[in-house]
Amino acid sequence: MIRADIEVEELIEIIPESVDFLRQKGIVCVLCGEPVWGTLEELAIEKGFSKDDIQQIVNEINSLPSAK
Which of 6, 40, 42, 49 lies at a CB distance of 3.0 to 4.6 Å from 53, suitable for a disulfide? Predict the structure, then answer.
């Protein structure tokens, strides 16, 4: 199960489709083919998401087909 404190690089490795999912949310987690450093939570906070928003994003990522 994915948590908000997962490193972006690890998230992409575990659930590759999370890149497109996060991009649709306005969170770019890959630049020039390389993952952005830091955690999912840090990246989302940088983009202005609240803790509740971040938890919802985590829940949605955990519902993606490749997360199962």
Answer: 49
